[in-house]
Amino acid sequence: MGLLSLSIWMPIAFGVLLLVIGSDRNAGLVRMLALVGSLLSFVVTLPLISGFDRKTAALQFVEKQPWIDRLNVFYHLGVDGLSVWFVLLTAFITVIVVIAGWEVITEKVAQYMGAFLILSGLMVGVFCAADGLLFYVFFEATLIPMYIIIGVWGGPKRVYAAFKFFLYTLAGSLLMLVALVYLYFKSGGSFDIFTWHKLPLPLQAQAVLFFAFFAAFSVKVPMWPVHTWLPDAHVEAPTGGSVVLAAIMLKLGAYGFLRFSMPIAPDASREYAWFIITLSLIAVVYIGLVALVQQDMKKLVAYSSIAHMGFVTLGFFIFNELGVAGGIVQMISHGFVSGAMFLCIGVLYDRVHSRDIAAYGGVTNTMPKFAAFAVLFAMANCGLPGTAGFIGEWMVILGAVQYNFFIGALAATALISGAAYTLWMVKRVYFGEVANRQVGELADINWREFLMLALLAVAVLWMGLQPKPFTDVMQTSVTELLRHVALSKLPS
Q1: How far, in whole angstroms, is CA 44 from its chain's centroid?
Q2: pLDDT class for 431, splitting at 50, 70, 90?
Q3: Which end of the chain, N or C, is less surrounded by CB atoms within 10 Å?
C-alpha cells in the first residue's frame, strides 16, 4: 500500500472503527481515536510534498492494480501539480474539524467523527483517482457522509437542506456518468483518464462532453445559477459540515474542470470559454451584491464563497498561466479562509445560539483574543495583501487583464464588494459598544478554540507572505495543461 492509498484508506479505516465503537459512553475514547486518526492521516500526506518532483507534469506516487478485470477498470492512483496540494488541504482541514467538534458534539459522537473521517478519505480519493470509474465512485460517495452530517446534526431545516444538497449534486453527476461511458467505448474499453486526454474527438462530440461535465462540476462549485443549494446547506449544517463543505467539497467541482473538461474537450473549452467566463463574472459581481444584504452570518459567508469560487472558474477559462495558477491558488486559500470564517461563526453560535448579525455588537470587548483571529480572517476574506486571500485573486485579475482588460476590470470590482460585505459584518459584530447582556457575558476562547484558529491563522499568513512553494509545485503541470489545450504561453 503506497502513500496515496494510505491517505485514502487510513481515515476511512479509523472512521469505520469509530462507527463500530458507536457509543456515547465511550465518547472520550472516540474523540481521542478521531484525533489520532486525523493526525496520522495528515502526517502520511506530508511526504507527498517533500518528495514531489516539481520538474515533471507526469503523475507521481502512482499505484495501479486491476480492480474490475472484465471492464478493464483499474485501482489507479496518482497526483500531479494540479492535485497534490488538495490532498494535504483535505487532511489538514479534517484535523481542524475534529478539534472543532471536540466539546461541541455531545450526542452520537462516534457517528459524527466517523462520518468526517470517512468523508476525508473519499475526498482524497477524488483528487488521487486516475481511473474514470474510480473517480466517479469517490466523487459520488462523498455525498453520503455529508448528507448524513447535515441531516442528523444540522439545524431546524436540516432535512430539507440535506435533500436539496443531495438531489442537486446527484442530478448533475448523472450526465457525467453518461460522458464517462461514452469515453470508455470511444477509447476502446479504457477508463484511464489520461488515455482520454489523447482522444482525437470532433468538436461536436467535445461540445456534448463539455456540457455533460459542466452539469456535474458547475453544481459542485457551485456556479450561478445552480448555486441555490449552497446557502441552505451552509445555514443548516453543523459548523464542521460548513467548514468541510466550503474548504474542500466545493473544490471537487473546480478540480473536475481541470482534470476532465479542459484536457478531454480542449476545443470545446475554448469555444465555450465565453459561457463560463460570463457565469463566473455574474458570480463575482452579482453574488457579491447579494452577500451585502444578508442578515445571517453563515449566509453571508456562503454567498461570499460562491463569489470567490467565481474567480476560480474565471481563472481557468482565460487560458493563461497566471489565470490557471491563480485559480488553483484561490482554491487552496479559500479552503483556509472560508473554513476559518465558518469556525468563527461556530464559536459565536456555541455561546449565543444565534447567527443573526443583529444579535451581536462589541464582541471585541469581551472576547479580545477571539476577535483578533476573526478580524484577521475577515481581512483575508477581503483580499488584504499579506494574507492568503490576496494571492489567488490578484493572479486571476492580472491574468484576466492580459486576456481582456474589461473582463479584468469587472473581476476587480469583487475586491470592493468583498471588502464592503465583510467589513460591514465585522463592524456590526465585533466593534462598537457591547450591544446586549448576552454579548457582555461572553467568555473568550478556550485552548481548544485557540489551537484550531491559530493553526488556520498560520496557514493564512504563511500562504499570503510566502506563496512561492505553492505556485512552484503546480507550475509545470499548469504549463503542460495549457500546452495540451493548444494555447501558447502568453509573454510575461
Answers
A1: 20
A2: confident
A3: C
Here the cell at position 395 is 493572479
All three cell numbers of 191, joined, read 477508463
| Coil vs helix vs strand at 7 | helix
Q: 164 near 233, Cβ under 8 Å?
A: yes
Residue 218 and residue 250 in contact, taking contact as beta carbons nearer than 8 Å: no
Note whether 331 and 82 are within 8 A (CB): no
pTM, two decimal places = 0.90
Asked if 210 contacts 265 with a C-beta cutoff of 8 angstroms, the reply is: yes
269-284 pLDDT, tens per residue?
Answer: 888 988 999 999 988 8
Start-to-end C-alpha separation, the chain:
43
Residue type present at position 236: E
416 Cβ contact partners less than 8 Å away, ≥ 6 residues apart: none
User: CB under 8 Å to 424, separation ≥6 — which residues?
Assistant: 292
Residue keyed to cell 470511444: 186
Look up residue 435 and give its amino acid: A
Q: pLDDT (tens digit, 9 = 90+) per residue, 366-414?
A: 888 999 999 999 999 888 888 988 888 889 999 999 888 888 888 888 8
d(CA 74, CA 318): 34
3-state secondary structure of 252: helix
Q: Which one, of 144, 279, 165, lies nearest residue 211 by Cα?
A: 279
Q: Angle at CA 42, nearest 5°, toward 38 and 43?
A: 120
Phi, psi of 105 (to 5 degrees): -85, 115
Among candidates 285, 286, 282, 271, which has minimal Cα distance to 319?
271
Q: Closest Cα to residue 109, out of 45, 25, 50, 38? A: 25
Q: How many CB atoms are closer than 10 A to CB 178?
A: 13
